[in-house]
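Input (Peptidase M12B propeptide domain-containing protein):
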Amino acid sequence: LVEYVKPMKISPLPLHEQDLLYGGDAAQPHQPPMRHHSGHFRHKMAKLWDPHPQYEFVAFGRRFHLMLAHDSGFVHPELQVTHVWHNMTIREHPGFRTNGCFYTGSVRGDPHSTVAVSLCHGMVSRG
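Output:
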């Protein structure tokens, strides 16, 4: 059973430029503050990471509300990705840092749920 879903980011209160910035140094006065792409999906190249993002989607006739927290503890620092095609297989170290874009959490209303996601390349919508 396969179902395609479109997650919607639940927007928290707006972040202020003095709030916590992941991937940057807010203490450098000679650089302009980083800006956040506001929308339902984190832009792939955004340097500002939401430490507690929330997403909602409907699948299998049920609404899921993901409550997430920044956490890369479940990803091994020497992670390798294997791509398998019909005529070749490639194993490589991914081109992202494993300490900045992984989240764990749960589904709101389901205390026994567990969620682990990567937002390293953003949450992508194709439709």
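Residues 28 and 34 are 11 Å apart (CA to CA).
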